[in-house]
Amino acid sequence: xxxxVATPRHGGTGRNAAVAARARQVVKAYGxxxxxxxxxxxxxxxxxxxxxxxxxxxxxxxxxxLMHCLAGLDTVSSGQIFLDETEITGLKxxxxxxxxxxxxxxxxxxxxxxxxxxxxxxxxxxxxxxxRRPDAAWLRQVVETVGLAERxxxxxxxxxxxxxxxxxxxxxxxxxxxxxFGDEPTGNLDSRAGAEVLSFLRRSVDELGQTIVMVTHDxxxxxxxxxxxxxxDGRIVDEMHSPTADQVLDRMKDFDSRGRTS
Amino acid sequence: MxxxxxxxxxxxxxxxxxxxxxxxxxxxxxxxxxxxxxxxxMNTTFDKLFAVTAADVTVSRxxxxxxxxxxxxxxxxxxxxxxxxxxAKATGAKSAEGAVSSMSVTVVDSHDKNMGSTSGAPxxxxxxxxxxxxxxxxxxxxxxxxxxEVMVDADTAEKxxxxxxxxxxTITANGDIKARISGIATFKVTNPGAAxxxxxxxxxxxxxxxxxxxxxxxxxxxxxxxxxxxxxxNVAAALGDTSAYKLQTQKQAAAANKDSMGSFLDVxxxxxxxxxxxxxxxxxxLIVNTFSMLVAQRTREIGxxxxxxSSRKQVNRSVLIEALFLGVVGSLLGVGAGVGLAVGLMKxxxxxxxxxxxxxxxxxxxxxxxxxxxxxxxxxxxAYFPARRAGKISPMAxxxxxxxxxxGRAGRVRAAIGLVLTLGGGAALLAATRADxxxxxxxxxxxxxxxxxxxxxxxxxxxxGLVVRVLSAVMLRMxxxxxxxxxxxxxxxxxxxxxxGAALMVGLALVACLSVVGSSMVASAxxxxxxxxxxxxIVQPAGGxxxxxxxxxxxxxxxxxDIEHVTSYKSVSASLTAPDGTTAKDALVAADPTxxxxxxxxxxxxxxxxxxxKDAMSVGDTYxxxxxxxxxxxxxxxxxxxxxxxxxxxxxxxDDVNIDKGAMYTSITTAARYVPADxxxxxxxxxxxxxxxxxxxxxxxxxxxxxxxxxxxxxxQADFKQQxxxxxxxxxxxxxGLLALAIIVAVLGVVNTLALxxxxRTREIGxxxxxxxxxxxxxRMIRLESVVIAVFGALLGLGLGMGWGTAAQKLLxxxxxxxxxxxxxxxxxxxxxxxxxxxxxxxxxxxxxxxMNVLNAIATD
Lengths: 262, 861
Known about the structure:
The complex is a heterodimer. By secondary structure, chain A is of the alpha/beta class. Chain A contains 9 helices and 11 strands. In chain A, a hairpin with a 6-residue loop joins β2 and β3 (37-48).
């Protein structure tokens, strides 16, 4: 059993205000009998509100699975996941879809945008689907922060990779979700474009109070986070607060060599 | 060979995607093969039948080439009975029998119900001879003996629950024969539907032929070892003067009988093959689309193959080989299904009264060959263009993000070609509407139809962009963002949307065109009836088989009460010599003088009522202009089977009509002066006018007068119009039924396009689901896209078809189709139905898209 239940840094207003999502004793296993593979092994985790959390770990450690389960994209074998006070484990597809639509934002590694819609349409898509009118002032602010005001009428094919990811970030922010999940959002970008996107995510946490969870294997990316969770073999093995890229890298090397020697 | 191997694996890997294309090939090939098997089977059935019914040598009356019997007097041609004795004495003849056979009869049971076939097969009455034992055997009772006994065939007996002792009334031109069933005879081969009754020879001669000393034909049986050809020569020698006789060996007689069936079978065969061709054409769209999409999806894979050294040719070939697999599988299944279809058709014909036995099922070796070659060639040709495109994929494509396939922007060249074709076709259609000659006009019409069709197919992608945008503005907007997504998806690859819609367009264009022509026909005829028909009632053969009205029925009509007048109408063949010396064979209308009130005709000059006077006639203005005939001129009329008369032209009628166009009128009294009573044709049709205010009573009286003659029916004007409408409606329904095949294939095309689009957009769907698109919204999006494609096809098809139909009507106005009527209810129904077809086509793809696992969908590359 592993635990990464955070001590709230901005404590005092009560647990509910500080924790945006929690996982309790989450197990995710594939197959059965001898071929049974455990991707998540009794994981407990609290995602603090208004924080930028990075999840790291080697390939196959279960980091993506954990994020997918937290985001309601995947089902768990056992255990519970809460988004704020809503238990999402056990929700039917319809409710889960609504929850993703209204309360969660996503940024994927690639193929974030619908090729048939222009940048602005992509940004407002979740609200359009929900039949909500976007808050115009907020939308303008988001668009301007992301630096896309000139490119709103462009189709994704007319945008660079970095611009596409920024559109994806803007989409995730525009609907004001409780939490944004990023699945290696800078994995396909060169370091400059990646830095752009990451610093923008950082600012959205600092200035807008957004909660972000990001899966990455890039120590530089992780250094933008407030807190880094390390996963190995389906367990949370360590965590680090306010890391630098070098610290993260060292810790990774440490795990690597431990993995090899043990 | 590697190319073979990869092709085979690809084919198997995509068998789901190939299935719909295979079904399209299958359906078309099945229809072609089914038609061939069905018509071959009918041929076999008739071959067998005619082979057993004909005697070794048949002697019959030689008739003047153009028609086999004297027109419409209900009496078959005969030969003298004395010839039987002469033929029997021929060397090598074992026996000779005089046979009586007449098809101008109607057999009814004691409830006056017609025992004849409902499928158009004849009722045949004859005498029972030993020759008939070749094809039939008495299964119960005994042969007819004396004038009160009749034998009936077992199929008819079974169909109408007849048993020994039941009374049958046979209505002939020489009066009715009332007789009880003495025996039932069974055919040894399949009888496709003719009802057959037998009498003893004397009764048959007097009642069917009208004279005791004649026969219809002589059946000569050969002695063992005597060849039919030899016997024919011997019989000819024995008869002496053979100028009046026609001698046929069994083979010749069978061939001659077959010829008379042949044209009917051919028409049916080519009509059905035509519809199979349309389905095949539509199938081509489906195949092209399938392969285009498969190639698009495999861009990366093909790029990789090119990168590791596959030549352009090899890639090209590998796609073609896949098409070959598809063609072979689809065609093989199609041939099998075709045989099944033929059996189904035979059962259907059986239900409609035409008996065909599966024992006679004939699958010629050419049938599977034709089916396979057709299916394979069409598939490979259809896959050629996508294959060529595959060959052009650069090796770099493997390294690029596969993402969405090429934008597929419709090229300018394509647009220009399409526009030129469409405009050219439109001009041809316009010219057709202004043509003065129908032959020239129909050529223009054909060219116009073909060019506009091809033009529409070519500019389909362009139109898709336009129409989808308009549709979206009208219809999709109300569905909000989901509607917008559907619009964008339909617009994403205009070429694909265009081709999918065009497939539907072809079938619907034909439906629209035919429905316009059909309703214009009804409208024109109705208008004409209102304008020119003054009679209240029309008596004519039921089922429109054109058999004349026997005199006893005509008398019954004349005797009906509450009638002001009854008009007889006969068609008399004659050879006419105009004053300018030209001679032509034609038919005169011989009618009662009241006919001019029953069917009103405009006269150009003269007075039509005088044409019914003694030795007078009228001609149409076309004839009059052509032969410079004026009122008062005399025309030499050589009545067929009668004398020659010089008739005075008393009136020239205008030919700007549909009914009786070009008809020449004379009175029955005049005709009867020159044509002997037993040669004068029976009434073709009769008209009646009710006494003032007695319409209802008169109608009832006429109906009861004809109750004993179920082969005729009386109609008032309203019923007649309805019947006209029903008949054209029925004809259209058959055509629609056959076009349904093409439409089914087109719907499969929509299903296919959607299914492949869903697969292609797996990631997108995953993304949309992840960011909160509900299953229901996703399904709706796919359904809307489907509806848009279907409605696009319907709009194009209906528009094109109405254009064709209007052009055809304008052209046919020359032939009297004066009124254009667009059947809006039909058009609207088809339009709305096409939207539902779209919904239906989206069922499975939408379901599958909804069921997709979000995570897997996102992870798909």
